[in-house]
Amino acid sequence: MGRRMGLDGAKVHSVFALERPDAAGDFLFVCEHASNKFPAPFGALGLDAATRRAHVAWDPGALGLARGLAERLDGTLIHANASRLLYDLNRPPHSPGAMPAKSELHDIPGNAAVTPAERLKRTETFYLPFVAALHAEVARRLAMGRRPVIVTIHSFTPVYFGQPRAVEFGIIHDADPSYARAIHAAAQAQGGLDARLNEPYSASDGVTHTLRHLATPYDLDHAMLEVRNDLIATPEDERRMADRLAPVLRAALNELQRGRHRADAR
Amino acid sequence: MGRRMGLDGAKVHSVFALERPDAAGDFLFVCEHASNKFPAPFGALGLDAATRRAHVAWDPGALGLARGLAERLDGTLIHANASRLLYDLNRPPHSPGAMPAKSELHDIPGNAAVTPAERLKRTETFYLPFVAALHAEVARRLAMGRRPVIVTIHSFTPVYFGQPRAVEFGIIHDADPSYARAIHAAAQAQGGLDARLNEPYSASDGVTHTLRHLATPYDLDHAMLEVRNDLIATPEDERRMADRLAPVLRAALNELQRGRHRADAR
Question: Which residues are within 8 A (CB) of B117 and not within 5 positions of it... i.e. 6 or more apart?
């Protein structure tokens, strides 16, 4: 894994990037589907340019939103630098969804017959370095007496298998629902978005792998955020959504921590 | 992490060792408390030689038993090369038990006031490389279509806080009890050992960190084995225990897999 310092101080890696590593805040943001790049030697998996720009290849808007939240909340961000069609970092290596042959309506030719050797190569290239880096960020904070809050940032398509989706902001949890529920309540209190708990997916759909592996075993507060991608379609929209959601995440965490202080005081 | 090939083909690392990495069997054995070495620059934490040989520093007999099981079951073994008093690899970095100031009746002078910087250094030296290596072994097998069975090997002292312990063989599980129950049943069928489920500890005591982090999130069959250390006090005893337990582990896995085939066939 080559490393160099980027212009903004971020550590740039070949298959993922760690931004604002020395941020002092509570939040550790994760964006597994940040990128629609198809680096050599893997290539474009037989997809045309339009498909490589579409939501099957990545979560449009998620990286911009994640960066906006990390800046506003003094958080650290780790994100993918390659398409989830090469390796979906939110899936374990044996999951068919880690290298899907079909995604929604799209066939992925280069994933039609992934051999075990190819699956191993992509696991070693994309998944292992990303997990090791994220785990190290978690473990270092724990060693220093900090309790990171893990928030994964995703976007979803407004129309799925031909059906429009009304939900605008989904908040999903793994084993411990506490922080997701607090975010949902804070979003309801703020108003303006159709916010729903465990929509458009939930842990039972296998979408919480990152949280299950790196938050739940350490009893860390966590949530997976899903924003409908028509609401974060431009850099200006991403900024507006970060302006809207940063105080929601902060207020929800404050509320959760206040509740624990009250419980401790009893 | 320097690596070199050992005489027996094992990859030797400074703080852990990976033995029989290319074994073809189902089992991935883990021995977090294999060693009572206190490598520089950390040193002996103010302990005398007798304490460094005692069970507070390591699990006597566990490494010999783990090696015997790995050989008999064609498994891979990863084990610590440093005392658990420097870093207990079966604890997360924020746990007081990761670098205990007191262990049973023994004060550990070098752990009396571990600073955050020292905690970070030990976490980076011992815990992160070990977890990364074990996680890579798990992920590579999953990518190749194999489902490793994670078995951690421990020993416990016959007398604890002055009380003798009758249990001889404890089988402990994290979230999924299936394989632990199958081992318990196979040990009961074999006879000859006082075998008990979730004794002398259980997951609620925080002793299943390795399993919780690296087996449960991947839905892998797993168990933590605890053998009373007076039964594995010599190399000959370790061999006899491996002869006894290898068929128990194998029979239990066969039974578990047969049960799943029956369930699938219905």
Answer: none
- Residue from A87, A88, A90, A94 to probe the interface with B (highest B Cβ count within 10 Å): A94
CB B186 within 8 A of CB B252: yes
Tens of pLDDT, residue by residue over A78-117, are: 999 999 999 999 999 999 999 999 988 889 999 999 999 9
| Nearest chain A CA: its distance from B203 CA (Å) | 12
**Nearest CA to A192 among A224, A164, A155, A231?**
A231
CB contact under 8 A, B94 and A140: no
A128: nearest CB among B93, B136, B144? B136
Shortest distance between the Cα of A63 and any Cα of chain B, in A, equals 26
Q: What is the ipTM of this complex?
A: 0.93
- Domain holding B233, by residue range, is 4-265
Q: Number of residue pairs across A and B with CB atoms under 8 Å?
A: 87
Whole-model pTM? 0.94
Residues of chain A contacting B128 with CB distance shorter than 8 Å: 135-136, 139
Assess whether pLDDT exceeds 80 at residue A9. Answer: no
A189 touches chain B (CB under 8 A): no
Q: Residue A148 gets which letter from DSSP?
A: P
Burial of B124: CB neighbours in 10 Å, binned 0-12, 13-18, 19+: middle
Task: Please check whether residue B183 is in contact with residue B110, taking contact to mean a CB–CB distance below 8 angstroms.
Answer: no
A123 touches chain B (CB under 8 A): yes
Q: Do B119 and A144 touch (CB under 8 A)?
A: yes
Burial group, residue B52, by CB count within 10 angstroms (0-12, 13-18, 19+): middle
DSSP per-residue letters across B59-85? -TTHHHHHHHHHHHTT-EEEEESS-TT
Q: What is the CATH number of the domain that holds B221?
A: 3.40.630.40
- Side chain identity at A44, as an amino acid letter? A
Contact yes or no for A168/A228 (Cβ under 8 A): yes
Q: What is the DSSP string of B97-121?
A: GGS-SEETTEE-GGGTT--HHHHHH
Q: Are A36 and A92 within 8 A, CB to CB?
A: no
Residue B225 burial by CB count (10 A; 0-12/13-18/19+): exposed, middle or buried? Answer: buried
Domain count, chain A: 1
